[in-house]
Every structure is written in C-alpha cells, then in structure tokens.
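Most newcomers find our protein records easier to grasp once they have seen one. To make this concrete, we reproduce a full record directly below:

===
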Amino acid sequence: MPAKIEPPALPIYLYRYRSLHRRAGEMGNILAREIETLRRSYIWCSKFIALNDPMEGFYRPSSAIKKKSNYDQIAALVSAGKSGVGIASLSDTKKTN
C-alpha cells in the first residue's frame, strides 16, 4: 500500500518582525520602507550572503561527495544555488511584550 502524504497544517496568520531603528551604515527612512511594503503587498527577502548568522546555510559535504572527480563543480553549484535564494523570516507566534 503506498504511503499517503498529508499536507502540513499551515497557520492562519504569519507575523514578521523587523526593527524600525536605523543601524550603523543603513541609509533612508526605515518606517517609510516598511509602510511601502504594506502598500505594495510584498515581503522583503534578504540575500543569502546578507544574513546575520554565519552558520546559516552551512554546507559540509560528505566524504563520498568530496571523492567525486567533479567535486569542485558540485561545490560551485551549491554555492551558486545558495546565493540565488532570498530568505524572509516569519513567525506563527504573535509577539506581545
């Protein structure tokens, strides 16, 4: 009998938390930027290389992959794939302070 795959139970609401305070080196009006995202109905996705966790997306190839003659090509494909990904962080928990 084949397995039945159930779709995940998605939350009704998702929340996005972003600071409205300017950090060193940032330009422009952050509040205006956030209001514009609401007006235009989009979510900003950061580039992979701009994430603040140095271990985010860490890739350690297996010894079997390292032994392949085309390992350099595989590593380049993984790196290129990661650099083309945008990431948005959302939460299903409403933050109340």
Observations:
- Residues 46-87 form one domain.
- Strands lie at 46-47, 86-87.
- The chain has three helices and two strands.
